[in-house]
Amino acid sequence: MDLHGIEQRWLEADRALGDAAFLHNYYFQSNPFNDCVRPWATLAAGTFRNAGLLHELFVERTGALAQFGEEGRQAVARRWGDAVLAQVLYQTAEMAVA
Predict the structure, then answer these.
(1) Domain spans in the chain, listed from the N-terminal domain onward
(2) CB-based burial label for 48 (10 Å; 0-12, 13-18, 19+)
(3) Using an 8 Å Cβ cutoff, are 59 and 65 in contact?
């Protein structure tokens, strides 16, 4: 195996591609977290289906849900789904009555 030849080809690619080659290598080939991305995405998706956590974040802590206009609420409904959004809104209404 000609390691010097391989190194030269990488250096030529780096010179030709510049920062793009470095960033591709850094983020996709040498990134120690690559194997974690899929489990993290699954965890995040599950978390963003939890109406209680969404209520806490977007209603109790930040009040962000009340600040959204109609377009924002429609975007949230598309992302979370109507059922989850209704649960978050129901918790909001339930807490306001209590």
Answers:
(1) 1-31, 37-98
(2) middle
(3) yes
Whole-prediction pTM: 0.55
85: number of Cβ within 10 Å = 19
pLDDT (0 to 100) of residue 4? 73
For the chain, 98 residues long, the average pLDDT of each consecutive 10-residue run is 75 76 82 91 88 90 91 91 88 53
Tokens of 16: 């030709």
d(CA 77, CA 55): 14
Q: What is the pLDDT of residue 15?
A: 78
For residue 73, give every residue at least 6 positions away whose Cβ sits within 8 Å of its Cβ, in sequence order, or none: 65, 85
Rounded Cα–Cα distance for residues 30 and 28 (Å): 6
Cα–Cα distance between 9 and 15 in angstroms, integer? 10
CA distance 77 to 96: 21
